[in-house]
C-alpha cells in the first residue's frame, strides 16, 4: 500500500511544481515589461528599442553603442532567460549621427541562429530539468509504480486475482484521466504538455501490464480477448497522441510491438499476426505523416522490423519480407504524404532522417531473409532486395536521401547472393540461380540510372559509381562461383549486363553537361567494360584469348575515336593489358612452353602476332583521337605482347619438346636480351614531345629486362650457385658472353644515350653488375670447366677474384672518369670501392691464398696452380702500385700493400724452390733454406729502400727498412739458433754485407738528391 502514498506524493509534487512555474513565468513577464518601460523613457530615437536592450553603456560613436543582442526582439521572452541589471545609459547622441553614419547596423542574418540555440548556462539547465526532467522522472515513477503494484499484489496475495487486475486497470485509467486534467489546464497557468503525455503513457503501460497478467499469469481471459485489449490500448494511445503529442505516440508504438510477445506469440495465427503488424505500421505511419513526427515514423519502422522476426523464425519468408519492405517504405510514404501546412524545416529534417535510417536498417535486416533456413536465397529474398534497391533509388531521385545511401542495399544484395552461392553451391535458392540472379544483378543499375539522370554533378557521379562498381564486382564474383557450382554459361550474367550498360550509357552521355570529363560516365563505362572482359574470358578458349582481348581493345578504341566520352579510351587500354595478362596465364603459357598447346608453332606465332598487330592498330586509333597518353600505353601493351610471343617462340625453338637437355640459363638470357633490346630501341627513338606514358614505357621495359637478368642469370639460373646449365664453348668464347656480357653492353649503350638521372644511374650500375658477373663466371669456368658448379674454390681462384676487385677499383679511380660531369657520381663512390678492394687484396694475398695455411687447392696440376698463384700475386702487386699513385692515406696503404704482396710472393718462390707444391706439408726448414730466406729478404729490402731513397718515397723507404730490420731480427733469433758452422757464418756475413752496402748506397743516393738544384721559380 505504500506505493499508493508514493503515487499521491508524486502527483502532489507535480501540482506544486506547476504552481511555482506559473509564478516564475508571471515574474519574468513583469520584469520584461519593466525593462521595456525603462527603455522607452530613456531613448526617443527610432533605434531606441534596439539600444535599450544593451547591457553595456554605449560610447560616443553610434556604431559602438550597438548591443550584441539580436536585432529583432522575440515575440515572447524566454521563460528561463535571466535579464542582466540595466546600467544607467548615457545621454542620447545627437540626432544627426545615426543618419550620417556610413557604417550601417550589421545585417541580422546570423542572429536567428543564436536565438534558436541559446547559450546553455546553469540557470537554463536547471530550468529545463525542473520543467522537463522532473516530468520524465515522474512519468517513469508512475509507470514503474503501476507495474510494481501489480507485481506486489501478485506476490503477497492480498487481493484475489480479479481484484488485483481491477485495481491495476483503475490505476491506469486514473493516470490517463490525470493526463487529461493536466492537458485541460489553461495555457498560461499550469498546463504542461510533456507531463500530460508521460502520465498517459504511464497509464498505458499499467494497462498493458494488467492485460498481460490477466492472460498469462492468472488465465482470466482468453487469448483473443487479451490480444484485442492490448491492440485497443495501443490504438487508443495512438489516438490520444493527437492530443498529447509525440511522446505518447512513441510509448504506444513500443507497447504495440511488445503486445504479441507478452501475450504468448505462439497463440497468434500467421494471418492475424501479419494483419496486426500491417495495421500497427499503417496507423503509425499515417499518424507520423499527419503530425510530421519523425520520431514516431522511425519508431513505427523499428516496431514493424521487430514484428518481422517471428514470421522469419517460423519460416514464413514472404510475410517477413513484406514487413521489412513496409518498414523501409513507410517512413518514405510518411515524408512524401505529410501535412505541409505550417511545417518547419526541423520537422521535415526529422522525417528525412527517419526515412534514411529505415532504409539503412532494412538493408541490413534483409540479410536475415536471405540466410533464413531451410532454403537460403529464396524468392522472397530476391524480391525484397529488388524492392529495397528501388525504394532507395526513388528516395535519392526525390532528394530525400544522399546518393551514398544506395551503397547499403547494393552491397547487402551482392554480399548475400555471393555468400549463398559460396556456401550452398548448387543447392542455393532460386534468387541466386540463373536467370533470376541475372535479373537481380541488373536491378542495381536499372534502378540507379533513372535516379542518376535526375541528379547533377558529383551526386550523379557518386550514384553511377556505386551502381557500376557493385554490379561489376557482383558479376565478376558470380562468374567464379557459378562456374564452381557447375552452372552452364556462367559468364552470361556478365555479358548481358555489360552489353546492357554500354547501351544505357547513351542516356548518361545525353544528360551529361560534358561527356568528355564526366567521371560518372567513365565509371559506368568501366564497369560495363569489366563485365564484357569477364564474359570474353569465360567464353573464349585460352589459346585464343589474346586475340579476343586485342579485338575488344580495337573496338573500344574505335568507339573512343567516334564518341568523345570519358572512359572509352581507358577501357581500350585495359583490354590491351588483358591481352598481355592472359598470355601469362598458366592455361596459355604453360602448354605453350611445354609444347602441349593444341596449336602448331606457326599458329601460336600467328595468334601472338595478330594480337600485337591489333593492339598496335588500337594505339594508332587512340593517337588519331588525340589521346596521346592512352595511345602510348596501348603501344606499350602491344610491344609487350610481341615480346612475350617472341619469348615463347625462343623457348620452343631452343628447348623443343619436353625431355631434352636443360637450357634454363640460355632461355633466360634470350628473354633478357629481348627486353633490353626493345628498351634500347625505345631509348633511341625517344623525343622531346613524348608523353609521360612513353617515358615510363621505356623505363618499365628496360627495368624489366634488368630485373629479369639480375634475378635469373644472377641468382636462379646462375651456372655456379643456381640451376643453370654449364656454358657451352671454350673458355672466354662461350654462352656466358650471351648471358652476361651482351646485357652489360646493351645497358651501357642505353645509359649513354639517356640523360643523367636516377634511371640512367641504375642502368650504369646494372651494366657494371653484369660485367662483373661475366668476369667472375669466365674465371670460374676457365679454371674448372664443366665442374664449375661443384668444384671447390682454390687459392689461385681466390687470388683471381681479388685481382678482379682491384681492376674494378682501378676503373672507378680513373681520372678520366672524374673529369666527365656525367660520371661524377661514380667518382664519388670510387674511394669506398678502392678501400674495399685493397682490404680484400690484403686478406687474400696475405692470408687466404698462402699455401702454408690457406684453403685446399682446386684440382689443378701443380705447375699450373703455382703459375696461376704467382701470376695473381704479380698482377695484384702491379695493380696495388697503380692504385698507390693516389694521394692521401689510400695511396700510402696501397703502396705498402704492394710491397707486402711482393714480399709474400718472393717468400713463396723460395719455399716452392725447396719443397715444390707440398710446401705446406712441414713448417720446418733446412739450413740452406733458412739462409736463402735471409739473403733474399735482405736483398729485397735493400732494393725497396734504394728505390724509396731515389724517388724520395717515404713509403718505400719505410717498407725497405721494415724488411731489412725483419731480416736482421730473423738472423739474430732464428739463424743463430738453427744454423751451424760455415752456414751460420755465411748468413751473418751476407746479411751484414748487404746491410752495410745498403747504408752506403742510401747515403750516396741521399747526397746526390741533395746536390740536385731545385728548379727556379717563375716570378
Descriptive notes:
With about 1000 residues, the chain is mainly α. Among the domains are: about 20-100, no CATH class; about 130-270, no CATH class; about 270-375; about 375-540; about 815-925; about 940-1010. It has 37 helices and no strands. It has helices at about 1-40, 50, 95-100, 110-115, 120-155, 160-185, 195-215, 225-245, 245-260, 270-290, 295-305, 310-315, 315-335, 345-370, 380-395, 405-425, 435-455, 455-485, 490-510, 520-540, 545-560, 570-585, 585-595, 600-625, 630-655, 665-685, 690-715, 735-750, 760-785, 795-810, 815-820, 825-850, 860-885, 890-915, 925-950, 955-980, 980-1010. α33 runs antiparallel to α34 (about 890-915). It is elongated. The N and C termini lie far apart (about 130 Å).
What is the SS-derived class?
Answer: mainly alpha
Helix count, DSSP H or I runs of 4 or more residues: 37
User: On the 0-100 scale, what is the average pLDDT?
Assistant: 74
* Structural Rg: 49 Å
Q: What share of residues are in beta strands?
A: under 5%
How many β-strand runs?
A: 0
Shape: elongated
Measured between the Cα atoms of the first and last residue, the distance is 129 Å
Q: How would a textbook summarize the main sheet? A: none
Poorly predicted tracts of residues = 1-6, 43-117, 126-131
Amino acid at each position: 500500500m505504500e506505493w499508493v502514498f508514493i503515487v499521491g506524493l508524486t502527483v502532489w509534487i507535480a501540482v506544486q511544481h506547476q504552481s511555482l512555474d506559473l509564478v516564475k513565468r508571471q515574474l519574468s513577464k513583469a520584469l520584461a515589461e519593466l525593462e521595456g518601460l525603462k527603455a522607452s523613457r530613456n531613448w526617443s530615437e527610432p533605434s531606441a528599442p534596439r539600444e535599450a536592450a544593451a547591457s553595456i553603456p554605449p560610447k560616443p560613436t553610434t556604431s559602438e553603442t550597438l548591443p550584441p543582442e539580436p536585432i529583432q526582439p522575440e515575440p515572447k521572452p524566454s521563460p528561463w532567460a535571466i535579464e542582466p541589471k540595466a546600467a544607467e545609459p548615457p545621454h542620447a547622441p545627437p540626432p544627426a549621427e545615426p543618419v550620417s553614419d556610413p557604417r550601417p547596423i550589421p545585417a541580422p542574418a546570423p542572429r536567428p541562429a543564436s536565438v534558436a540555440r541559446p547559450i546553455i548556462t546553469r540557470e537554463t539547465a536547471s530550468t529545463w530539468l525542473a520543467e522537463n526532467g522532473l516530468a520524465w522522472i515522474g512519468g517513469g515513477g508512475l509507470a514503474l509504480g503501476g507495474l510494481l503494484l501489480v507485481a506486489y499484489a501478485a506476490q503477497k496475495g492480498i487481493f484475489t486475482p480479479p481484484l488485483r487486475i481491477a485495481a491495476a486497470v483503475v490505476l491506469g485509467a486514473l493516470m490517463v484521466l490525470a493526463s487529461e486534467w493536466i492537458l485541460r489546464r489553461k495555457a498560461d497557468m499550469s498546463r504542461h504538455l510533456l507531463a500530460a503525455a508521460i502520465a498517459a503513457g504511464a497509464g498505458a503501460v499499467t494497462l498493458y501490464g494488467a492485460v498481460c497478467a490477466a492472460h498469462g499469469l492468472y488465465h482470466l481471459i482468453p487469448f483473443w480477448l487479451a490480444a484485442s485489449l492490448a491492440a485497443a490500448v495501443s490504438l487508443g494511445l495512438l489516438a490520444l497522441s493527437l492530443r498529447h503529442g509525440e511522446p505518447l505516440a512513441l510509448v504506444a508504438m513500443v507497447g504495440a510491438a511488445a503486445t504479441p510477445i507478452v501475450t504468448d506469440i505462439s497463440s497468434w495465427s500467421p494471418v492475424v499476426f501479419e494483419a496486426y503488424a500491417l495495421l500497427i505500421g499503417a496507423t503509425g505511419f499515417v499518424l507520423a505523416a499527419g503530425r510530421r513526427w519523425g520520431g514516431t515514423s522511425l519508431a513505427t519502422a523499428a516496431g514493424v522490423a521487430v514484428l518481422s522476426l517471428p514470421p522469419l523464425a517460423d519460416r514464413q519468408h514472404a510475410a517477413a519480407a513484406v514487413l521489412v519492405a513496409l518498414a523501409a517504405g513507410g517512413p518514405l510514404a510518411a515524408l512524401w504524404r505529410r501535412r505541409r501546412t505550417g511545417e518547419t524545416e526541423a520537422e521535415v529534417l526529422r522525417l528525412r532522417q527517419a526515412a534514411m535510417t529505415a532504409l539503412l536498417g532494412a538493408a541490413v535486416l534483409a540479410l536475415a531473409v536471405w540466410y533464413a533456413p531451410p532454403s537460403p536465397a529464396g524468392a522472397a529474398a530476391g524480391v525484397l532486395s529488388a524492392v529495397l534497391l528501388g525504394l532507395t533509388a526513388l528516395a535519392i531521385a526525390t532528394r530525400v536521401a544522399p546518393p551514398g545511401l544506395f551503397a547499403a542495399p547494393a552491397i547487402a544484395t551482392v554480399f548475400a547472393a555471393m555468400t549463398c552461392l559460396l556456401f550452398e553451391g548448387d543447392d542455393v535458392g532460386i534468387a541466386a540461380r540463373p536467370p533470376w540472379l541475372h535479373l537481380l544483378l541488373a536491378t542495381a543499375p536499372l534502378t540507379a540510372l533513372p535516379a542518376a539522370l535526375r541528379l547533377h554533378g558529383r551526386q550523379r557521379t557518386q550514384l553511377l559509381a556505386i551502381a557500376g562498381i557493385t554490379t561489376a564486382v557482383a558479376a565478376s564474383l558470380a562468374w567464379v562461383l557459378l562456374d564452381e557450382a557447375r552452372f552452364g554459361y556462367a559468364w552470361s550474367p556478365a555479358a548481358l549486363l555489360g552489353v546492357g550498360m554500354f547501351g544505357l550509357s547513351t542516356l548518361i552521355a545525353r544528360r551529361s553537361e560534358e561527356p568528355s570529363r564526366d567521371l560518372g560516365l567513365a565509371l559506368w563505362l568501366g564497369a560495363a567494360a569489366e563485365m564484357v572482359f569477364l564474359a570474353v574470358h569465360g567464353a573464349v578458349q585460352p589459346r585464343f584469348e589474346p586475340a579476343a582481348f586485342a579485338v575488344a581493345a580495337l573496338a573500344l578504341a574505335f568507339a573512343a575515336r567516334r564518341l568523345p566520352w570519358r572512359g572509352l579510351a581507358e577501357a581500350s587500354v585495359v583490354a590491351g593489358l588483358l591481352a598481355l595478362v592472359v598470355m601469362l596465364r598458366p592455361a596459355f603459357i604453360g602448354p605453350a612452353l611445354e609444347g602441349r598447346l593444341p596449336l602448331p608453332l606457326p599458329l601460336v606465332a600467328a595468334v601472338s602476332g595478330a594480337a600485337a598487330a591489333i593492339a598496335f592498330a588500337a594505339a594508332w586509333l587512340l593517337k588519331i583521337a588525340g589521346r596521346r597518353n592512352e595511345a602510348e600505353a596501348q603501344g606499350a601493351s602491344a610491344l609487350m605482347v610481341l615480346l612475350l610471343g617472341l619469348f615463347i617462340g625462343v623457348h620452343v625453338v631452343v628447348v623443343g619438346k619436353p625431355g631434352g637437355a636443360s637450357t634454363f640459363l640460355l632461355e633466360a638470357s634470350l628473354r633478357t636480351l629481348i627486353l633490353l633490346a626493345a628498351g634500347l630501341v625505345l631509348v633511341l627513338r625517344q623525343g622531346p614531345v613524348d608523353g609521360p606514358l612513353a617515358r615510363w614505357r621505356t623505363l618499365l621495359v628496360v627495368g624489366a629486362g634488368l630485373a629479369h637478368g639480375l634475378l635469373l642469370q644472377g641468382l636462379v639460373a646462375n651456372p655456379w650457385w643456381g640451376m643453370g646449365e654449364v656454358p657451352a664453348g671454350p673458355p672466354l668464347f662461350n654462352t656466358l658472353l650471351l648471358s652476361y656480357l651482351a646485357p652489360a653492353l646493351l645497358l651501357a649503350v642505353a645509359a649513354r644515350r639517356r640523360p643523367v638521372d636516377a634511371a640512367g644511374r641504375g642502368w650504369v650500375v646494372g651494366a657494371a653488375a653484369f660485367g662483373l658477373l661475366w668476369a667472375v663466371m669466365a674465371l670460374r669456368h676457365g679454371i674448372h670447366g664443366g665442374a664449375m658448379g661443384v668444384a671447390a674454390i682454390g687459392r689461385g681462384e681466390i687470388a683471381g677474384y681479388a685481382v678482379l676487385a682491384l681492376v674494378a677499383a682501378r676503373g672507378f679511380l680513373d681520372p678520366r672518369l672524374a673529369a666527365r660531369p656525367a660520371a661524377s657520381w661514380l667518382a664519388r663512390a670510387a674511394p669506398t670501392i678502392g678501400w674495399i678492394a685493397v682490404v680484400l687484396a690484403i686478406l687474400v694475398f696475405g692470408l687466404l691464398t698462402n699455401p702454408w695455411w690457406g684453403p685446399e687447392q682446386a684440382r689443378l696440376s701443380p705447375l699450373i696452380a703455382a703459375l696461376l698463384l704467382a701470376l695473381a700475386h704479380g698482377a695484384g702487386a702491379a695493380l696495388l702500385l697503380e692504385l698507390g699513385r693516389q694521394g692521401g692515406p689510400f695511396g700510402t696503404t696501397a703502396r705498402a700493400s704492394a710491397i707486402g704482396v711482393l714480399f709474400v710472393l718472393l717468400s713463396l718462390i723460395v719455399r716452392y724452390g725447396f719443397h715444390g707444391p707440398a710446401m705446406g706439408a712441414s713448417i720446418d726448414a733446412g739450413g740452406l733454406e733458412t739462409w736463402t730466406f735471409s739473403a733474399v729478404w735482405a736483398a729485397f729490402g735493400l732494393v725497396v729502400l734504394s728505390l724509396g731513397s731515389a724517388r724520395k718515397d717515404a713509403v718505400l723507404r719505410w717498407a725497405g727498412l721494415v724488411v731489412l730490420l725483419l731480416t736482421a731480427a730473423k738472423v739474430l733469433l732464428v739463424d743463430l739458433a738453427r744454423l751451424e758452422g760455415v752456414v751460420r757464418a755465411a748468413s751473418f756475413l751476407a746479411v751484414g754485407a748487404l746491410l752495410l752496402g745498403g747504408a752506403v748506397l742510401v747515403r750516396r743516393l741521399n747526397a746526390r738528391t741533395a746536390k740536385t738544384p731545385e728548379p727556379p721559380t717563375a716570378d
